[in-house]
Amino acid sequence: MRNAYKSPLQGRYASKEMLYLFSEEKKFRTWRKLWVTLAETEMELGLNITPKQVEELKKYSEDINYEVAEAWENKVRHDVMAHVHAYGEQATTAMPIIHLGATSCYVGDNTDLIIMYEGLELIRKKLINVIDRLAKFADEYKELPTLGFTHLQPAQLTTVGKRATLWLQDLWLDLMEVDKMLENKRLRGAKGTTGTQATFLTLFEGDYEKVKKLDQTIAKKLGYDEVYPVTGQTYTRKFDSLALNVLSSIAQSAYKFSNDIRILQHLKEIEEPFEKNQIGSSAMAYKRNPMRSERISSLARYVICDTLNPAITASTQWFERTLDDSANKRIAISEAFLAVDAILEIYLNVVSGLVVYPKVIRKHIMAELPFMATEVILMEGVKRGGDRQELHERVRVLSMEAGAQVKEHGKSNDLIERILEDEAFKMTEEELHNILKPENFIGCAPMQVTDFLNEVINPILEVNKELLGLDGNVRV
Predict the structure, then answer these.
(1) Which of 123-137, 397-411, 437-451 is the least confident region?
(2) Which end of the chain is more exposed for a tag (fewer CB within 10 A), N or C?
(3) Which of 342, 333, 343, 313 is nearest to 115 (CA)?
(4) pTM surpassing 0.90?
(5) In this structure, are residues 112 and 187 in contact, taking their beta carbons and an 8 Å threshold?
């Protein structure tokens, strides 16, 4: 519909897979799966539910009569009860036992948890693929010297690949947090209206062991080994805050990467992909704007801000629950997942097509390297019989003169020529240029890249190799 608002996350950014996870189809099918599981387990534990009723529930579990549900919701103003009635109009013999002993949060909260865990699995898969492409980039350029920057001012040299490991390490830390959440996943289970399971205790005539068995069996049938040991009416909203903290962490890592790429593209050292027919500016036809990286930055900022929503919700739930979480949660949780999904799609696209310009990088190095090499030049001069203090003063004066040539007159850095002309240093042009090879100033950077990839990243990629092979798509 073009005459009604549609979220940009749906129309422009998020993948079909993540959009489906947060769709009504996914939600209501999961509700019905939960109702089937509840009825089947209650029957197995001895309640007066027949196999025919359970089979009828299964028959219509994916055949959702949405129009009927919408009519019921307009009448009763309650989404769960509307779907209970709609389900019951299809599974007529099972109608009396649908939702038996449960509260709305039995379907609502368990479904939310299932969707979020499946969302984290999808996020994890995309994260692994970004890590894989970034690792390949780091390895390819581990020996290519480049200017390091501290305070955004030229500093000692590093390598393009070593800088990439900084981005990579952030994602590795994010992956560990995602894995921690998935390793400890659990459902709310069947806990009743305030978490006391009082209704289920009545249904099972005081048999607490059967109540516990119901709770645990439902989770296991749905593929989960654990349930929250205690709840109010809802699972603790602390989980939502923890989940979005992880998503925010991924957004932060991507934001840092995208900002670095934007600066590097400004320097013309590295560019993000730019398609043959892509237009950079409607007015300035020559421009190659880093629109992909800018989009990562923009979406990441949204996610980081969005994290405040579940934090406030978790801290302001009254006693066993209050409903002011609901409307906020519907928006904040889903949009955070959709946005991070989009961020990783774009990140994968960018890192798969980065273009490196070694000659520009070297030009920038050589404009600064003479200043950085002065300590080595000083030591070499001393080895040739020079006085350390005298040479230090000569280097200082010559550096100031060369700096003035660059800053005040817009000329190139001529410090090396000045040192060659100064007899105090006693160095030939060949000797001086051998000192000034950029690879002499990158320290352990190449070895650090190799060690990090071999010891940390590659073992992770090997374990997860079945997840590799994704391509990042930029939709518009």
Answers:
(1) 397-411
(2) N
(3) 333
(4) yes
(5) no
Query: Sorting pLDDT into bands at 50, 70 and 90, what band is 1?
Result: low
Q: Express each pLDDT in 132-168 by its tens digit.
A: 999 999 999 999 999 999 999 988 999 999 999 999 9
Listed by start position, the domains of the chain span 18-97, 120-142+163-190+234-355, 361-441
Q: Determine the length of the chain.
A: 476
151 classed as catalytic: yes
Distance CA 194, CA 104 (A): 11
Fold of the CATH domain 120-142+163-190+234-355: Fumarase C; Chain A, domain 2 (1.20.200)
- Annotated active-site residue 85? The verdict is no
Name the average pLDDT for the chain: 92
According to CATH, the superfamily of the domain at 361-441 is Fumarase/aspartase (C-terminal domain) (1.10.40.30)
Residue 410 φ/ψ region, left for φ over 0, alpha for ψ in the -120 to 50 degree band, beta for the rest: left
Could you please state the CATH topology (level 3) that the domain comprising 18-97 is classified under: Fumarase C; Chain B, domain 1 (1.10.275)
The tokens describing 88, both together, are 């019951």
Say how far apart CA 213 and CA 45 lie, in whole Å.
Answer: 8
Q: Which of 15, 85, 151, 282 is catalytic?
A: 151
Question: Which one from 61, 241, 249, 281 is the annotated catalytic residue?
Answer: 281
Q: Which long-range contacts (CB under 8 A, 24 or more apart) does 362-367 make?
A: 362/145, 362/438, 364/146, 364/147, 364/267, 364/269, 365/145, 365/146, 365/147, 365/157, 365/438, 366/413, 366/436, 366/438, 367/406, 367/412, 367/413
Torsion of CA 242, 248, 253, 256, to 10 degrees: -150
